[in-house]
Amino acid sequence: MPVLPTLRRATAVLLLAAATLYTAPARPAAADEPGWTAEPAAGAAATARPYFYLAGAPGTVLEDRLALANTTDQERTVTLRGADAYNTADGAFAVRPAVPGTGAGSWISFGAATTVKVPPRTRAVVPFTVTVPPASPPGDHPAAVIATEVGDEVRGSPRTKSGGVRVHLRVGGPALAALTVEDVAVRGRGPAAVIAYTLVNRGNVALAPELRIRAEALVGEVSDPPRGRALPVELLPGQRVELTEPWPGAPAFDRVRVTLTVTAPGGARAVATGSRWLVPRGLAGCTGAGLLGLGAATAAALYLVRRRRPVPGPGPAPDAPSAAGPATPAPHHELTGATR
Q1: Do residues 102 and 160 both lie within one domain?
Q2: Which of 1, 91, 114, 136 could form an S-S bond across to 58 if both were Cys, CB 3.0 to 4.6 Å?
């Protein structure tokens, strides 16, 4: 086999692959990467903070600083605002849209630094204040600082990239930790069974609840669902969330009763129960059809009994004369002691 042609072909293949790699365009940055970050500025201890934590009495003005870091080679223009925070229906932490609010988000002000231009490869520190109204109730007031960059027009709509940092704000005064458990129900069947319930924060501080579940069956033995665990939710004051717990060991045919006990630091505790008949789907259909047939048969039997029963006609009036004429009294003898 000739060696020279083989080497020439291998060299050509390598040169073609190198040219392809050289001319391939660099992969653009992901569309969801803003190119900048927003986080609390390091304090005197120079330690990183995951969120802002501020506390003060009603009527006070609190101060802190936000750090914006531009990690790209282009200048970034970022707008800053405060936002009210709340729990979504499934317990996630969310913020209100950019509309005038009435919560702690409206207490946050960046003054003249609402819009900040951050040069390339630069970190900017922006101060802000939180003015607590004099009539503010005590407890936790969840909020967040939102940083938004609006880029160029793309297909008729602007590219908006946002980032946020939570503001954990506590107003001085009595703290009350309280909650309730509502709407406990067992849904689904078999391995797909779940325990649904609603948690409501009735106090004025955020809660980190823990759940314990106890299950009872009417006939057989039942294994308790997973219990004694911390829930992956931070329940904000005045909020309600709807949660579910999987119950793969639920019985297939029994009446079950579940008891939920929820506790949280600060002395919060609530207990609620719910019950349900768990019946296999096929058996439930047969039982329903059987009951429907039994009801129809019972109705038909009652109808036939009523049809066969004689209906009495109207009788003569008590004092009405008979059609045969006046009745003749029967003769009778007078019994005396004298002889006629």
Answers
A1: yes
A2: 136
Mean pLDDT (the chain) is 78
Specify whether 150 is located in the same domain as 215. no
Residue range 280-294, pLDDT digits in tens: 765 444 444 444 445
Distances (CA, A) of 42 to 63, 169, 175: 14, 18, 29
Strand 36-40 vs strand 108-109: parallel, antiparallel, or unpaired?
unpaired
State the pLDDT confidence band at 127, using cuts at 50, 70 and 90. very high
- CA-to-CA dists, residue 255 to 186, 189, 198, 217, angstroms: 11, 12, 22, 6
User: Which run of H or of E encompasses 117?
Assistant: strand 115-118
Sign for the pseudo-dihedral over CA of 239, 240, 241, 244: positive
pLDDT confidence tier of residue 62, bands split at 50, 70 and 90:
very high
Across the chain, which distance is largest between two alpha carbons, in Å? 174
Given the DSSP bridges, would you call strands 52-56 and 157-171 parallel, antiparallel or unpaired? parallel
10-32: pLDDT as tens digits: 444 444 333 333 333 333 444 45
User: Considering only CA atoms, which of 162, 133, 163, 141 is closest in space to residue 61?
Assistant: 133
Counted residue by residue, the chain has a size of 340
Both 149 and 72 in a single domain?
yes
Q: Give the per-residue pLDDT at 133.
A: 96
**Single pTM value for the model:** 0.70
Token readout for 160 is 């908006």
**Which secondary structure element, helix H or strand E, spans residue 182, and what is its range?**
strand 179-187
